[in-house]
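User: Predict the structure for this protein chain, please.
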Amino acid sequence: MPLAAGTRVGPHEITALLGAGGMGEVYRARDTRLSRDVAIKVLPTSFATDADRLRRFEQEARATGLLNHPNILAVHDTGHHEGSPYVVSELLEGQTLRERIAVGALPLRKAVEIGAQIARGLAAAHDKGIVHRDLKPENVFVTNDGQVKILDFGLAKLTQAESGEASQSPTEVRGTDAGAVLGTVGYMSPEQVRAQPVDHRSDIFSFGSVLYEMLSGRRAFRGASAVETMSAILREDPPDLSETNRSLPPAVERIVAHCLEKNAEERFQSARDIAFDLEQLSGSATTHAAIARGRQSRLPGVRVAALGLAAFAIAAAAFFAGRRNSSHSLPEFRPITFQRGFVESSRFAVDGQTVVYAAEWPGTRRNLYTAQPGSPESRSLDLEDAELVGVSRSGELAVLLARGPGPGRTLARLPMGGGAPRDVAERVVGASWGADATSFAVVRVEGGRNRLEFPIGKPLYEAVYLDNVRVSPRGDLVAFTDHPLAGDNRGDVAVVDLAGRKRTLSSGWSDIRGLAWSPDGKEVWFTATRMGIELNLWAVTPDGRERQVYRAPGSMQIQDSLPDGRVLLVVGRARPRLVGRAPGEAQDRDLSWLDWGWASDLSADGKTFLFGEQGEGAGLEYSAYIRGTNGSPPVLLGKGAAFSISPDGRSVLVVKLTPPAHLVLLPTGAGDPRPLPPGSVAQFHWGSFFPDGKRIAFTGNEEGRGPRLFVQDLAGDDPKPVSPEGVAAFAGNNVSPDGAFLAASTDAGLALYPTTGGEPQPVKGAESGDRPLRFSGDGRFLYVRARARPLTKIFRLDLSRGTREPWKELAPPASSLGRITALTIAPDVGAYAYTFSESITTLYEVRGLH
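Assistant: Here is the predicted structure, written as structure tokens:
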């Protein structure tokens, strides 16, 4: 008998019955602890004595509980209610894929998008050694916002020795064969039909069947009976997709056919590879659709559509042809560094045989070294804490040194053979030698924005955040990466000519970390990813033609190239961890969750921790979570970059990064997200609640202007600036307890800015490089983070006396190579949380990239 509304199942209150099937009843319920709606699947008491049903029910809970991925249904809890087991999961709003395709084939773009998400979810399961074994449209859910969730791991295989078995869940029954269950039979792999042992490649076959149906609107394998359907799976190929959709790109058919190979050895061997290939097609579709829309005013609509599809097909075919051709000549990697450490930057020297690089080894500060491929030895140049930005054709090094006033560093040049550096320019955050070996292109900090100059003193372009600047071999163009948010690596690849005409060559990257001109000087090569943290090597021509040069597991960063084809690549991956200490505890605790966590804020009592996830698991828009500093399970609040927790803990402030950017209040319990009016602000970098919870403060940029501080009333008013351009805060809860001041960094040091406008008050005791973190609860002290490595030093400034005293020293755990990249504190209770990121990388000279 179904549970009545109001029934308590553990800490959850039943509100409605959502549905029932062979594996139990599903209810909507309210989690009374966290004030959120959830779904509860309960195995009825009448089934609890059925050993098979009970085993499958527990198997689903165990398998799904092992997984944590945005494309797999999240399990929150398990338990028993009056003798019946239950599973608590996230509540989904939307429809199953079966319901989506019941009316026919999906549009190509949507089918590719959903397919890529399914493949990502399968890849996550396979990484944990879990094979689903019952993938079908009924077990794929598409939420109202387009997020795909894989359901029902009741047949999941957790070992490598079990044989296939079919689902007994009711799905679809044909009228001509009453009672025949065909919903699973039509998606079984040949191994399952033969009752042979299965592995992850069985899921890939089932995925191919699902993708085929999304694209065609009909089953890949379907007979008059279950026996005939299984015979078709073993012996027949499905009809060509082109029979139902003549405009379908051949590359899509190849993906489906490769999934549906009868022999598992001949299929895709990785769901992650499928996801990558589909995402490539999705990117091409977006690009060419945009081109078609741009030409609509000049061409008839039907012709525009045909041209768009033709361009898509050509691009996709070229991509797959490139993959086939490149497999015949693999590049050769020769290691240049051999120690366990972090290589930051590198360049070829003028002789073409020597490599200069900046690196940090255990127990040392960053230094410059020279080495030659084939030799394990490196020679130190004894120049600590220098950032290498170039080696000229005349043999001089260009470095950035930590000295000089204001933000940025000092650009200096020095002979590679030795000698003292000679200063060239101040306030520099990036630089590149010109082709003449005497001039420089530099990126300077001016008014809180980045300005590209070439030569020095001649402005060419200005934006929020510019990086990876490189002058072309002919000296007529400067390539760089253009980022919409300060300190965030998502953005575009662009060039600017000597007249200041800027062109975006490639856009939509979620992470770009390296750039160089190609060996022949005809392309810009860069390392980037559309989603996640695995960067691969791409190329784009000055007229915007994009291609992939090299792909491999892990992550890489291009450094330099030579005309003979040799390239320098740094290969490795950062391993961030979230670490925190709860009030009253004596030891730090690992609070990590997904693959790239970012410490954002702590509640004043130090018990609640807000963090953002920015890696592959979070998706393109990032995700915001809260969890207890005592290690309690995280709660996903929604999409966006996390900023601040409200004083009452009922909401958090995030920024939605998809254009147009805007701030949103996400509830921590019941309620709907609340967008805030952006006014004239185009970019948002940091934000914090006022102590009364009625206002927020944030750093933002109006279009074409530098960052400044804004205050916004949550009653619905537009933001109001309270500081001049160039005054910013990028971390911390920087509002004074009385709400009268904001602590922020200026070129001259720290200052307190009145929240109602007016002249700032300098903070006595502050030093160059200090960054504000939080006021004490009584407003007497301001806690700041000092510029220091490898330790992170936190000082307490007495605002009335102007004195400075140490509060905490945080050392990276287990390694001197790591660094603390984000930090939040609750000083009144001694709590803190931070992101610790350790990068272990190797520098390679690579031959054979084309």
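The CA atoms of residues 299 and 464 lie 37 Å apart.
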